[in-house]
Amino acid sequence: MLSDPERETIQQLHQKGMGVRQISRTLGHARATIRQVLNGSAPTRVPTGPPPVALAELFKEAEGNVARVQELLQERGTDVPYSTLTHWVRQQGLRTPKPRRAGHYAFAPGAEMQHDTSPHRLTLAGKTVRAQCAALVLGYSRYAFMQYYPRFTRFEARVFLQTALTFCGGAATRCTIDNTSVLVVAGSGPDATIAPELARWGALFGTCFIPHAIGHADRKAHVERFFAFVEGRFLPGRVFTDWTDVNAQARDWCETVANAKVKRSLQRAPAEAWVEERAALQPLPKVLPPVYALCQRVVDTQGYVSLDRNRYSVPERYLGHQVEVYKYLDRVQICARGQTIARHARVMEDREQRVTAPGHHSDLNRRAHRRKPSPTQSALLTDAPDVLKRYVAALIERTPGQGGHRLKRLLEFQRSYPAEPFLAAIAEAERYGLYDMTRLESLILRAIRGDFFQLGSDDDA
Questions:
Q1: In a designed cystine with 447, which of 138, 166, 350, 421 is the match (CB 3.0 to 4.6 A)?
Q2: Domain residue extents for the chain
Q3: pLDDT tens digits, residue range 397-433?
Q4: Chain centroid offset of residue 209 CA
Q5: How far is the C-alpha of 179 from the C-alpha of 183, rounded, in Å?
Q6: Contact, 42 vs 2, CB < 8 A?
Q7: Which CATH architecture has domain 112-278?
């Protein structure tokens, strides 16, 4: 279809005596189209005539299908071209609302920062996992920082925000967030109630959290645009070994790519603008408090405490005792009466795992204990001949428990009596299956009496 200026041009050229063929070559239109314009039969770009009064009702009845609207009009005796119907639908804004003029937010240095989270897919240790990407962007310089976590609770929020503000060298006086339940406990928008622990944390760093109004996600457009940049430039083709590797690569990418790339809106890199904004940020506390969560637990009968659906071992002597569990980002510390009794690396991505430290639990299997020689057994078998080794092994197998009492008596015999009669008695006891210590001592004494006390007969006397 031709526009009105094109029609007027064709009419003017024709009035000046130019033929149809020459007009076609000059304007690049088909000769049939030129003739239709001159005859007044060419279709117009903009349909003429008012739309039907009931067009909105018909559009609703047809569930937004313009072709069905055309059929309903034909059933009522009105034949309207499809292109005319679509023009009327657009004109009345029935399908999509008319575009509204966009606004612009200007931020002074140190006035605002924006924080949000977004779910991303990562290749971690050879498998794909779902992770929460937490990001913070300064409003003036667009200086950005991000970290990844298996889940994002208020504990991870405090960990991330402290790390991010340390990276930025300070905090803006206002932090715009969405209406997430991680930070908001009631209400929405600027009148929302922030979680007490996060509000106290913000006061420590000199910032306040203000959620944007519902439906106004563009209020934190800087961080939303940063997420799109991360998905397009950071994640493709990257693999990670563990969560430490993920966040190490994320931090390096923020420093070398995201904050070093020149932005068209700034006409410079965020790192350059950050140098100017840093002086206006709220200074960090002289001493950064450790970020942890304190939980009270009772040690169960198996010698573990539960934390985030994982179990961590405690020494056996604390069974049934109440202990304090300090959860840090990368470790778990367990205390009782002000004393640290256990430390573990925190399990972050898995559930239903048991973490057992060496020495916390004794083996419940007696046979496993038997395989470990006792001090008495070790003393007996040091440089011992084979006959004694065989006798000790058989004695342990035939004695309830570990045979500690009999082994101690046997060690006394070894240390008290000469070696030759002692080993001779051991050999005879092994031959007859004799494992009673009293009878074994009788054999030893008999051997000693025969070897060392050869008394003469009465005749010799």
A1: 421
A2: 4-92, 112-278, 293-355, 366-452
A3: 888 766 788 889 888 988 888 888 889 898 988 888 8
A4: 23
A5: 8
A6: yes
A7: 2-Layer Sandwich (3.30)
